[in-house]
What we know:
This protein is of the alpha/beta class. 47% of the residues lie in helices and 11% in strands. The strands form three sheets. Strands 1-3-2-4-11-7 form a six-stranded mixed sheet. It has a three-stranded antiparallel sheet with strand order 9-8-10.
Amino acid sequence: MSPVPPLASRPLGRRAVLRGxxxxxxxxxxxxxxxxxxxxxxTPGGRDRLTMxxxxxxxxxxxxxxxxRRFSEARGVTVDVTYVPFAEALTAVDSGLLAGTAPDVFRxxxxxxxxxxxxxxxxxxxxxxxxxxxxxxxxxxxxVSSGDRVYGVPQxxxxxALLYRRDVFDAAGITVPxxxxxxxxxxxxxxxxxxxxxxxxxxxxxxxxxxxxxxEFGAFRWLTWxxxxxxxxxxxxxxxAALTDGGADGPGARALEFTRSFFExxxxxxxxxxxxxxxPDALFTSGRLSMVFAGNFLLPAFSETVxxxxxxxxxxxxxxxxxxxxxxxxxxxxxxxATNPELAAEFLTxxxxxxxxxxxxxxxxxxxxxxxxxxxxxDFALSPDLMEVYSDQIRTITDRDVADVTTPTFAExxxxxxxxxxxxxLGDASVADTLDAIAERVDATATxxxxxx
Length: 453
């Protein structure tokens, strides 16, 4: 197969995506009512036709359409791609699985992966991924596996880094670490936040020092602080909670005390808690934050929104007992009931072949899962200097970290995290009570994890 030619580096935008829908059958869905109706009336793929559901940015939608078109032409088959908003994606898949109309192939984020892989709803593609497994770290392959079986392909990863305004830092005389191993300690990060808060009060801008991206489905990003403190959510066998290990002096308590202080010390806006509807990226691009924890997948939108109003850089997440980050990104999986499982498995492996993965990640400003591509480096469509920080940051994730966020019941744990952290950050729940409440639910779901595996 000849190398895949690069796509245009300039995003086409939503209107162009819709115009290109006829090429690969892209069907936009808007609103839950319309979503349920469309999915319920969709027929599954056939012997020479695959149906695929995706979500993501405009750039990612363009890429899925184009790569699906290329596969279709090379194989003489049809791949119909349906686009849905992320918040509605699981509703579409779940209703389709119940009705027998689920797409043959769909995109799923890693924290939700276990919900499907541990319950027999995905196609086992272990044999088809032998080559991929030799070029992907065990952590990423573990994210798409249950036991010793593989149920998806890790198409890409993304993670968070700390973006900062260069003009604000210059005015405050703050320099950032230029190597990951020299990342700020929690104490140093707190000193930086204090300086930024005091400077904003003095100049009357009211600009908050930073905000964390743990809203919507992102409560699991709080675990980054737990991992940095040297803790884990589960015991190594995933059989019970490890969150409260060490009691009041343990890593769980240290992480929660520190993150609660973000609100107590005026470092973050109150409206950026785990259940808030205000998203930090919008606050940063509008000039109301000096720093923001943000995923690399947001860089294309940041580039368009900020323009030349101010310059920003990226530095590493702070560290405590160790460095860490969160496992963001998405896998592609196939429905266990796909009409043509061989074609579905072939399409999945096509999408993560080196040429396709390089194209998707370089144009989408995403990080590849193939070690060979990470070591080679990609010609990212924009912000290559910032992507060096993200590429370093993603390497801090351990196999244990991945295991904690890809259990069959992690979707429920993620909801518990959002609810309990909210009460600790903005309510009157104590650190000890919050940790106990989360640990109780983790213990309850651990039993279900064992049953699923």
